[in-house]
Specification:
alpha+beta
């Protein structure tokens, strides 16, 4: 069942077995999130800053901090470009 995103009420979130799908009801933009991206989005929604999210990714996955930071920043840009943050 879709639910509203607390940080952006025009965005609906649907959990799937592979992660999540975000849908902007205003313009139909959507983005499929794998488990890693869903973790980043949930941390953003909780108010975590980039540094905290990078630490969470380093702790959870086999990734170095520089790569995690680039991925978080790129993901945030993608959310912003699609109006999904």
């Amino acid at each position: 069942m879709p639910r509203k995103n607390d940080s952006s009420p025009k965005v609906h979130v649907v959990d799937t077995e592979y992660g999540q799908v975000l849908l902007n009801e205003a313009d139909g933009a959507y983005l499929h999130l794998n488990a890693t991206a869903a973790l980043i989005k949930s941390r953003l929604d909780a108010g975590d800053d980039t540094d905290a999210i990078v630490r969470a990714l380093v702790d959870e996955y086999d990734v170095d901090a520089d790569t995690a930071r680039r991925d978080v920043e790129a993901f945030c840009r993608a959310l912003d470009e699609k109006g999904l943050r």
